[in-house]
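debug: dumping io for the single-chain case to check the tokenizer round-trip. Nothing else runs in this session.
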Amino acid sequence: MKCELLSIGTELLTGATLNTNVNYLSTELSAIGVDVHYHTTIGDNPKRLRECLDIAVNRVDCVIITGGLGPTQDDLTKETVASFFNMPLKRDDQQVKKLKKRFENSGYPLTENNFRQCDIPVGAAILDNSCGTAPGIHIEKNNVDVFMLPGVPREMKAMFTESVLPVLKSKSNQIVTSRYYNICDMGESQIENQLLDLIKQQTNPTIATYAGVEEVTVRITAGGTNAAEIKKLLDQTESVINERFGSRIFSRDRTTLSKTVGELLKAKGLSLSTAESCTGGQIAAALTAIPGISEVYETGFVTYSNNAKKTLLGVPSDILDTYGAVSHQTAEAMCQGLLERTGSDLAVSVTGIAGPGGGSEAKPVGLVYIGVADHQHKIIEKCRFNGDRHQIQRRSVNKAFAMLRNLIITHD
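debug: decoded output
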């Protein structure tokens, strides 16, 4: 099945709003074997929407439209699509009742323009909105399915999962199954290079790599009509991935690296403290975003200045004077100070130059020392990261979590 995604909203074209809907929909559709051939973004303009819809219905089997279903004057998706298919609009009594009840429960006044959301093209199917007020619409004409969904991501995702997916799955006897492998401490190009022989000859299953915020994800997808045969195909490819990446595969369910580390800490009952300089508390922020992390996360220091490193962590003055704040010795002393002052089982330290200024020939921007330690071992790595300030900080955080994971796995 071929699909086109039509995104409606002038704010998407001006850059005022990031279009996250196409990313979500493309990912979910691909997972069920629906091929997304086109992304089209249109402003709040009925003429251009009509033109783009005319093109879409003549080149794909399924069109998913997001946005323009609300109560305001610029929400013209439903009216335009209904007119395109010569389907008059009729106010639906059940939708009116639902709308009134929703507003009664919300405490907000129900203005007259909200009732526009209850106008449904005659002959169309209504898609319930479990998270908002505007119902979605499903029109099936000339062997093309057209779905109209809200532009608000939370509402769109719920409606897609609850109402659109079952329809699309019912129209195909194909079984599509994907497996995911989250890999840390390797770049996307490096991972792809190790899989290039498989990628070049791939047919079924297919292999794709995706660079995320904290990791690279490898996805293998197989399709067919026989579940047992699909499993066999996936198992064969999985064995190769396991062989080539081994312990660098930290999860197989798209769990982030930071969450994986948090769950490992809780599973082993190991306490942790952090000391950060150039990352400014980003490791601590990632940890405290994990529910239940208070069981194991003790405390975090942002020791940005030399004075803070000395007074809060006990880094000796002679180390800072001799080697500087950005050094193997300072990162090690930060770990040691953390362990002594907090009594935590594990410690993490980061010190570096995130830029854009502050670098030198001896210590350039992007030089970062990262330490992880327990009461028997200290591991310090010298890293050179490319990119702007944000990228250097982000890569430092990711590397710290990868090192911490290795330490937890091998911890006695």
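debug: round-trip ok. The first strand starts at residue 2 and ends at 8.
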